[in-house]
Design brief:
The complex is a heterodimer of chains A (260) and B (456). Chain A is α/β, with parallel strands linked by helices. In chain A, 33% of the residues lie in helices and 27% in strands. Chain A has a domain at 3-88 and 164-246: 3-Layer(aba) Sandwich (Rossmann fold). In chain B, 22% of the residues lie in helices and 36% in strands. Chain B has helices at 15-25, 35-51, 67-70, 87-93, 128-133, 140-144, 153-161, 395-403, 408-425, 430-444, and strands at residues 75-76, 101-105, 108-109, 123-127, 166-170, 180-186, 193-195, 198-203, 208-217, 223-233, 238-246, 252-261, 266-273, 278-287, 293-300, 307-316, 322-331, 336-345, 352-362, 368-377, 382-391. In chain B, strand 2 (101-105) and strand 3 (108-109) form a beta hairpin. The chains are: A alpha/beta (260), B alpha/beta (456).
Chain lengths: 260, 456
């Protein structure tokens, strides 16, 4: 199993956000995680990438290794990648420099030779085509002044350059118009492969028209309350999350912390 | 527009400390040169005796302790005491080996280390001692009129002691393309020394020049540089001044850059403060000619126990002048950074456009910053803004970089460089930019992070 999550809890202070998540993702699979706002989807993504704001309990194994034993940079080197919902702007650091520094950091930790500027540009040029970006992106500061769509394309570009084993996409579709969505989905689909797994977090079924998942999970109240194949997403689209009460083993209509 | 109440600074006095310091230094020294100079030295000493040394009760010295400096039994540096400054020291601080270069050791001209050949017609670059020996025609102003309410005993002390420094004169309509380098090296042995260089830059009408002023020294020695630089810009002149203060962190550095601008002139001052145990860099600009423009920028990087104090005073005297200030601090360890920036818009300075910004990055929980951006406005038709910010590295940006595989320490260094970047981008001369980039990389980098090409 590429990713095994068992009874995962996460909290910030007294606020428990994840309340026992169980999930298994095998290599080659694409899993979609859907759910209403506040259900814990982004927290799950951040916890997997190593965000230090959370106190966690439970088991998370990545290729059989304890993920919590690794720093964020070691997780990246091992092949975990998070496409951020809100990519950070970093004025003063060029995008080309950033991407090359990231790739070379990861390559160094993987025991591979670093790429020089020319080698890196050749790679980047190739990968930029798949997300329809041109060289001008490389000369700008990281995400600074990028439109929402440009930021998301930059995330996918980073993913295609770093070639992770496990890619987690956190609401990569949010705020995208249909053209940007098509470009981003195209970039993601180009990276699907038998030895790579993807976890696609989304609020809308729309994205799953472009990135067709093998499994769909519904999160509510900090747990996965229902799982199914791609048809589950269509069902959610039709009936909404509130209908989940009938089928799920959790009760997402009840706010976190409230007494039913 | 923000209006701030005017405070008339009454210098707090520490006359006994002054008397003690002057006694240690053996003041008054024997003086040579023109009669007016002897008079100016005498008057400045009297002024200092009356007013005393500044203390922390003085508004402009509130955050800077002088105890450590006053504890050292300094002696006056003297001319002709030839310490052998290693050529490697000089090479390391030279920006461009082909430039015109004037080198001073402990404040005294070192002709054997200087490079003054091939000067363009209309360009004079020499030592102040040479000019004083020739009668110093026209220099009375810079020695005699320095004492108004803003001055303090250290400027007075420089006037009393200064015998040498750089002298640059650019004739009307003369354009000097390559920066002129002024290098001040401290080289004490067992005895702690105070050097008192005084430099003068006279830019004639419509002339243009740039000057790089570097202060460095021999590691581990205790020295005190008490420097004054005057810049006088005639109508339409342009001078760009860049200062690199990289003295050993066992030393003390107090400096005043005193600037008078004529109509339509343009001046820029940029500084990077890396060295000294206690350093105070003061920039005082008098916008006296209509339509003159100035930008005053600084980057200070105190760490360990270093103390870096930046004092800026811009006086808008004439109408329609423009002033910009951007100071950035990167404070690490138990370092202490101070920004004390003040803009005064005097009555009649209509159409003033002035702004000042101070941003600070604290890299450790013990790092300390004091920032005081101040505006004092005595006329209506002005556009003035100011602001200050103090913060730590952005945790979300750190996580973003780390999630891409950049190790924590490299990610911190990368974001710190990015913060300093804005100052580097303002440096026009390529050789200077490369030199400063190298200094910053030495100061901020960690293993495994290549800074080269960061903004490509």
């Amino acid at each position: 199993m590429m990713l095994h999550i068992e009874n995962l809890h996460a909290r910030i202070g007294d606020n428990e956000i994840l309340r026992g998540v169980d999930l298994d993702v095998a290599a080659g699979e694409v899993h979609a995680i859907m759910g209403p706002n506040g259900s814990g989807k982004s927290t799950l993504a951040n916890v997997l990438a190593g965000h230090e704001a959370y106190d966690t309990e439970g088991i998370v194994l990545f290729e059989g290794e304890d993920l919590f034993a690794l720093s964020p940079e070691d997780r990246a080197a091992s092949g975990v990648f998070l496409a951020f919902q809100h990519p950070v702007e970093i004025p003063g650091v060029g995008n080309l420099y950033f991407l090359r520094t990231a790739l070379n950091s990861v390559r160094r930790r993987r025991g591979l030779d670093e790429l020089d500027v020319m080698q890196f540009l050749a790679l980047a040029d190739d990968r930029m085509k798949s997300v329809e970006m041109d060289r001008s992106f490389m000369n700008r500061s990281v995400n600074e002044g990028f439109s929402g769509g440009e930021k998301k394309r930059n995330e996918i570009l980073q993913m295609s350059i770093l070639e992770p084993k496990l890619a987690i996409l956190d609401e990569t579709d949010s705020g995208l118009d249909i053209d940007a969505l098509r470009i981003v989905a195209g970039g993601v689909n180009a990276l699907r492969s038998p030895d790579r797994a993807m976890v696609v977090i989304t609020h809308h079924q729309r994205l799953l028209d472009y990135i067709v998942p093998d499994r769909v999970h519904v999160m509510a109240g900090g747990r996965i309350v229902r799982s199914g194949d791609k048809d589950l997403a269509l069902e959610l689209e039709e009936y909404g999350y509130s209908e989940l009460n009938h089928a799920g083993n959790g009760d997402p209509s009840v706010p976190v912390g409230a007494t039913p | 527009m923000t209006t701030v109440t005017f405070t008339n600074p009454v210098p707090a006095t520490s006359t006994s400390a002054a008397a003690q310091l002057f006694a240690t230094l053996g003041l008054p020294p024997s003086v040579s040169g023109p009669t007016w100079l002897a008079q100016a030295r005498h008057e400045s000493l009297e002024w200092a005796k009356v007013h005393g040394l500044p203390t922390r009760k003085d508004e402009d010295w509130k955050y800077t302790r002088l105890d450590a400096l006053l504890d050292v039994p300094f002696e006056r540096a003297e001319a002709g005491v030839s310490h052998q400054v290693a050529l490697a020291t000089l090479e390391a601080v030279t920006v461009n080996p082909l430039s015109t270069r004037v080198v001073f050791v402990n404040g005294y001209f070192a002709p054997n280390l200087s490079s003054l050949h091939g000067l363009k017609k209309g360009v004079t670059v020499t030592s102040l001692a040479t000019v004083l020996a020739q009668g110093a025609v026209g220099l009375e102003r810079v020695f005699s009129t320095a004492f108004d309410q803003y001055d303090h005993a250290f400027t007075a002390l420089n006037t009393a002691l200064a015998e040498d420094g750089a002298y640059i004169q650019i004739a009307a309509d003369t354009v000097v393309d390559e920066p002129i380098e002024l290098v001040f090296l401290s080289d004490a042995r067992d005895t702690p020394l105070v050097s008192s260089p005084r430099s003068v830059i006279l830019a004639g009408p419509r002339s243009s020049a740039s000057v790089i002023e570097t202060h460095a020294g021999v590691t581990g020695r205790v020295t005190w540089t008490n420097a004054v630089v005057h810049v006088l810009l005639d109508e339409g002149a342009r001078v760009d001044h860049f200062k690199i203060q990289d003295e050993p962190d066992t030393g003390f550095h107090l400096a005043l850059l005193d600037v008078y601008q004529g109509p339509g002139s343009q001046f820029s001052s940029s500084s990077i403060m890396l060295g000294s145990k206690v350093a105070r860099n003061e920039v005082h600009v008098h916008l006296e000619g209509e339509g003159s423009r100035v930008s005053v920028d600084g980057l200070y990087l105190p760490r360990d126990e270093q103390h870096h104090d930046n004092v800026v005073l811009i006086e808008h005297v004439a109408p329609r002048c423009v002033s910009h200030q951007l100071y950035k601090g990167i404070v690490d360890g138990r370092g202490h950074g101070v920004f004390n920036g003040r803009i005064i818009v005097w009555p009649g300075a209509d159409g003033t456009d002035a702004n000042q910004t101070n941003k600070n990055l604290l890299l450790s929980e013990y790092a300390e910053i004091d920032t005081r951006p101040r505006l004092e406005i005595f006329t209506d038709d002005v556009k003035c803004t100011h602001g200050a910010a103090v913060g730590a590295l952005d945790e979300e940006a750190l996580f973003y970089l780390r999630s891409r595989g950049v190790p924590r320490e490299a990610a911190r260094a990368l974001l710190t460089h990015a913060f300093a970047r804005e100052m580097l981008d303002r440096v026009a001369s390529e050789s200077l930019r490369t030199h400063v980039e190298t200094l910053l990389a030495e100061r901020l980098s960690v293993d495994g992070l290549v800074i080269e090409g960061m903004l490509q």
